């Protein structure tokens, strides 16, 4: 009953979906980059372009929020979801930029694994966002959020194993520092996906 009485300002959901789509595209570019570092220049440029496009949609969302008196969900939730979605893509760009700036010539299987996990989580984020306009999808959204949490936990395990192997097997100190930073960026990206999942959970609990 409550969901039928909610205001139908659909543009918020449209903007969320557009940003989430950019997040998936950027995550896919990053995962491809981790599999073939020779593609770094073109992949990084594409991620940067996607980040700029997502920034426009995020700005539009926040501008609409200021102009809308009655919102379909809590105003703070709209602000948090808009900015936190954008954070995921920001971190993807930061990771690619780190590889470029540090002049990293070779990546590891663990870096690719972490990037693939980030891509999986990003796809789930998009799936969850796409279901948000209809609270009949509440249970499915909660399942998606739970799966994002599982992926974030897996990324923690992969990160710890990667760091252990790096310190054990890499003799070059500078390379250790460089790859450690890449791992941290990727782990941060997975964390940002989980943050979005917690926001989606909160919205469901408040409105379903």
- Per DSSP E runs of 2 or more residues, the count of β-strands stands at 0
CATH homologous superfamily grouping:
Phosphate transport system protein phou homolog 2, domain 2
CATH topology: Methane Monooxygenase Hydroxylase, Chain G, domain 1
Helix/strand structural class? mainly alpha
Shape: globular
Most strands sheet:
none
What's the helix count?
Answer: 7
CATH architecture: Up-down Bundle
Helix content: over 70%
**Average pLDDT for all residues:** 93
Taking all Cα atoms into account, the compactness measure Rg is 18 Å
Helix-strand string: HHHHHHH
The total tally of domains equals 1
> Which percent range describes the beta-strand content?
under 5%
Q: What keywords describe this structure?
A:
about 210 residues; Methane Monooxygenase Hydroxylase, Chain G, domain 1; 7 helices; about 85% helix; about 0% strand
Please tell me about this protein's structure.
This protein is mainly α and 208 residues long. It has a single domain (7-207), classed as Up-down Bundle (Methane Monooxygenase Hydroxylase, Chain G, domain 1). Helix content is 84%, strand content 0%. It is built from 7 helices and no strands. The longest helix is centred in the C-terminal third of the chain and has 35 residues, at 173-207. The protein is globular, with a radius of gyration of 18 Å.
């Amino acid at each position: 009953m409550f969901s039928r009485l909610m205001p139908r300002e659909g543009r918020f959901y449209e903007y969320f979906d557009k940003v989430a789509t950019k997040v998936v595209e950027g995550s896919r570019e990053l995962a491809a980059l981790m599999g073939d570092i020779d593609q770094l220049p073109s992949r990084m440029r594409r991620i940067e372009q996607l980040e700029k496009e997502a920034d426009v949609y995020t700005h539009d969302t926040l501008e609409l929020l200021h102009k809308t008196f009655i919102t379909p969900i809590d105003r703070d939730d709209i602000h948090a979801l808009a900015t936190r979605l954008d954070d995921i893509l920001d971190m993807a760009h930061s990771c690619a930029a780190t590889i470029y700036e540090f002049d990293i010539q070779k990546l590891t299987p663990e870096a690719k694994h972490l990037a693939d996990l980030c891509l999986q989580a990003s796809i789930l984020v998009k799936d969850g966002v796409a279901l948000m306009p209809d609270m009949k999808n509440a249970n499915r959204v909660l399942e998606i959020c739970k799966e994002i949490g599982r992926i974030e936990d897996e990324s923690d395990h992969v990160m710890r194993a990667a760091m252990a192997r790096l310190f054990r097997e890499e003799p070059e100190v500078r390379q250790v520092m460089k790859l450690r930073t890449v791992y941290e960026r990727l782990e941060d990206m997975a964390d940002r996906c989980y943050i979005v999942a917690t926001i989606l959970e909160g919205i469901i609990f408040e409105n379903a």
